[in-house]
């Protein structure tokens, strides 16, 4: 086992790679495939409208893997917020001891999980939020750079700076998230002080990913310039794949005289986004993707992808040590 980091030791995984929680994607099939490959698979709680759906998915996943896996609970603004406490209780009842949290005001959920003995990985887009999460007792921070898919925060700080700031400022181990797809990226993250990486978009484009093959092929064909930012006007900035619906939504956001979210709501419907992954039409609705799509050129199995990243990272780290030759002692 080439890698021995705080992440692999604490989580009991072979390779320091976490599959981030992804709406519509983080199913038992996805999570078990990543875990069986040696990383940490994650089931996304809010895929399921009711907590009991999450319970059944956890049980399904246990039949697919004997390896560790976790659950993502993301707290986001909503007119009618989900019962986050109930989802957390299902996690605890089912004996899941690794949870990825993210979003607004996570204190009560994190407190509940920590009292139950869970290892909590909390995702942050700024050092200020990371420091607040440390006070809540999280075990790992997932430092999410501006390159990432989905909710990017409002500070626009890319990972090269953010990870170094985390190394300088935090006394809790952290994971690098946003912009990672290969072993060179993993090696770079480790050199910047991270104990592993979190990958979302890269795992979307695998054989086991539960989305339509057309979408996977669209990711392969895309460049790093094929994403767009939406909803900054409402301080809920989100990185999406750039398609005709995203472009229409951007136009409404920029030109709206009222600033009413209702004007843009039909374009950002979660139902339409989910349908993209079912019908395979990348133009049907908005869907999240990170700038890392420019680094994705194939659709491997999770097993092959994780093994390749592990080998690339190992080779890269060995190769780079050769760049330094100690000066002879005088």
Can you give a write-up of this model?
It is a single chain. With about 325 residues, the protein is an alpha/beta fold. The protein has an eight-stranded parallel β-sheet with strand order 1-9-8-6-5-4-3-2. It has a three-stranded antiparallel β-sheet with strand order 7-11-10, covered by helices on one side. It starts with 5 loop residues before the first helix and ends in a 9-residue tail after the last helix. The mean pLDDT is about 95. It holds the Pfam family NMO. GO terms for molecular function: nitronate monooxygenase activity. It comes from Chaetomidium leptoderma. This is Nitronate monooxygenase domain-containing protein. Keywords: Flavoprotein, FMN, Oxidoreductase.
Q: Could you provide a short overview of the structure?
A:
The protein is α/β, with parallel strands linked by helices and 330 residues long. It is built from 13 helices and 11 strands.
Structure characteristics:
330 residues, alpha/beta, eight-stranded parallel beta sheet, three-stranded antiparallel beta sheet, 11 strands, 40% helix, 15% strand, globular, flavoprotein, oxidoreductase
Topology of helices and strands:
Layout: H1 6-11, E1 17-19, H2 28-37, E2 41-44, H3 51-64, E3 69-75, H4 84-93, E4 98-103, H5 107-115, E5 119-124, H6 127-135, E6 140-144, E7 150-151, H7 159-169, E8 174-177, H8 183-191, E9 197-199, H9 201-204, H10 213-221, E10 227-230, E11 238-241, H11 244-255, H12 270-279, H13 302-321
Parallel strand pairs: 1-9, 2-3, 3-4, 4-5, 5-6, 6-8, 8-9
Antiparallel strand pairs: 7-11, 10-11
InterPro entries: Aldolase_TIM, NMO
Keywords: Flavoprotein, FMN, Oxidoreductase
Protein name: Nitronate monooxygenase domain-containing protein
